[in-house]
Design brief:
Helix content is 39%, strand content 26%. The protein has a domain at 22-212: Sandwich (Immunoglobulin-like). The chain is built from 14 helices and 22 strands.
Length: 540
């Protein structure tokens, strides 16, 4: 029994004795474990010759992967180069620009290679540094290291454990004055043994290679320069918001304020009650001033207005179609966009057309759109054409965003500070996104916007008793195009619609039934023409 107890504690005593005497090779690896003995020799030309003897138990394959590019400071990487890598035994070794990899099968194998870039100048001295063990995919029971140098080393610093930790090795000391010996017991998978040896200046030439870190993380790091750029971008965006508020503030006030109905009913010299729109705005102009776009509904309302003013005659035919007839020629009393609408429906030589014929012809409304945009500028409701303003800022924003993205890529791959390009790209995208808000109404345009809201209040609140019976047909007809463009058609028809024909609308048994169907059919024909947004009504 005593003999068995002695056999059990013998390995433990051997380890304790090895620690007491400082012997590196005295501790023996446990059976069935992986261990490595690393011998390094620094040559006079600063190359480091390394030999690793690795013992792998039966039935096991182990691998090691060593990075050859290590971060050594802010935006700095240190490069190592491996050459003459070979394996004597069962295994293989491969080297790339960024990594050294070893794969070993069961048995004892010897891996040898040469490291360049291991000697760096530190102040007035030199430092030899290499990761003697690390990147293994298995636990190492023991790592024994010996290093020989051309001259006596002055210091040794051996770190073991997870990458980046400052845990010292199990043991490390200056051996016989000509080298270093170190040992680590139990190195977990993925952990490393990093040894740094100090030497006097001039022993060997320094050959460490340190370059700027060109990784994406470094390229997008927040530096004083990139922080200043981002701060400048923030100020620029805030300035743009302030400018936009200044330009659009009148509109915001007009939309937010409480507006009651306005009086659009006036008496002429003969005492008859008539309809007079605010600032002389026409139905087609109303929608464009409100939402800054020329929409299908703006043209539809214009067609109704031309009929009400005796330029056109509208009549239902065959129950599901309508005919538009030339009643009076387009004269100078019409605005440019109204004449464009007139020509689109009834070109020279055409006196009548049905909606089905217009659908087959596919009318072109490009001229109508251009004339209407030009008209709202001529009336001084806008400084510039809203569509041109949106397009200009959209394209400028897109160009800036593309240039910013291109600059981001170039900076990331070259000098860094890629956040500068990214900031420019974000600014361009913000400008493109905000292009829809760039058209600015003039003071007169903002005042008209408020009046239009009052006009809608009139359409909501006026009653038949407010208008003399003899004037109701004319007031109903003159107000109807504005009800169409402002989305009040249903209410206006239910309140005022006659059950007989009107002076501008052909014979029909039920105008309130026929007219909404005509509006829907005309909207469909005009939407098919393109160039315009297909919105039913403007909503100030």
């Amino acid at each position: 029994m005593l003999r068995n107890w002695g056999a059990a504690i013998a390995p433990v005593l051997m380890v304790m004795l090895a620690g007491a005497t400082g012997g590196v090779a005295a501790a023996q690896p446990l059976p069935g474990t992986v261990s490595t003995e690393v011998r390094m020799k620094l040559e006079r030309d600063s190359r480091l010759s390394v030999t690793e003897t690795v013992t792998v138990p039966d039935g096991k394959t182990v691998k090691r992967s060593v990075p050859l590019r290590l971060a050594v400071g802010n935006d700095l990487d240190r490069l190592f180069k491996i050459s003459d890598a070979k394996v004597d035994g069962k295994g293989s070794a491969t080297v790339t620009d960024d990594r050294f990899e070893v794969s070993l099968d069961a048995g004892k194998s010897t891996v040898s290679y040469v490291v360049e870039g291991a000697v760096a100048k530190v102040g007035d001295a030199l430092e030899l540094r290499w990761q003697a063990a690390g990147g293994w995919d298995t636990e190492l029971d023991k790592v024994a290291i010996t290093v020989s140098t051309p001259d006596s080393p002055t210091s040794v610093n051996c770190l073991a454990g997870p990458v980046g930790s400052s845990q010292p090795c199990t043991s490390a000391d200056l051996a016989d004055g000509r080298g270093v010996r170190a040992q680590e017991i139990k190195l977990s998978p993925g952990e490393r043994v990093d040894i740094a040896i100090g030497m006097s200046a001039g022993v060997v030439p320094a050959n460490a290679v340190v370059i700027e870190n060109s990784s994406l993380a470094a390229a997008f790091a927040l530096t004083p320069i990139s922080a200043a750029v981002l701060g400048g971008l923030l100020l620029l965006l805030l300035g743009g918001v302030v400018l936009l508020w200044y330009l659009r503030g009148r509109d915001a006030a007009a939309l937010a304020s409480e507006v009651g109905p306005i009086n659009v009913l006036v008496r002429d010299q003969s005492g008859r009650v008539a309809f007079a729109s605010p600032d002389g705005v026409l139905p087609g102009q109303v929608g464009t001033v409100v939402d800054e776009h020329v929409d299908v509904v703006d043209v539809t309302a214009t067609v109704i207005d031309l009929a009400v003013r005796n330029y056109l005659w509208i009549s239902e035919v065959d129950g599901h179609d309508w005919r538009i007839v030339r009643r009076n020629p387009a004269d100078d009393a019409l605005s440019g966009y109204e004449r464009a609408v007139y020509r689109a429906l009834l070109p020279d030589g055409v006196d009548a057309v049905t909606l089905s014929e217009l659908r087959a012809r596919r009318v072109d409304l490009a001229e109508v759109r251009d004339e209407l945009y030009a008209d709202v500028v001529e009336k001084r409701w806008f400084v510039r054409r809203p569509d041109s303003e949106r397009s200009l800022f959209w394209w400028v924003g897109i160009v800036i965003a593309v240039l910013g993205l291109a600059g981001t890529v170039v900076l990331a791959l070259t000098i860094g500070n890629a956040l500068f390009g990214l900031a420019v790209a974000v600014g361009g995208a913000a400008l493109a996104f905000g292009a829809r808000s760039m058209p600015a109404r003039t003071k007169r345009g903002s005042a008209l916007l408020e009046h239009v809201r009052g006009l809608r209040g009139y359409l909501h609140g006026v009653a038949p008793n407010d208008i003399p019976e003899d004037d109701r047909e004319l007031v109903f007809s003159r107000s109807l195009p504005y009800a169409v463009v402002l989305g009040e058609t249903e209410r206006w028809l239910s309140t005022f619609a006659p059950h007989s024909s009107l002076y501008w609308y052909g014979e029909t048994g039920e105008f309130a039934r026929s007219f909404p169907a005509f509006l829907g059919a005309l909207d469909g024909v005009l939407a098919q023409a393109g160039h315009l947004r297909s919105l039913r009504a403007a909503n100030p």
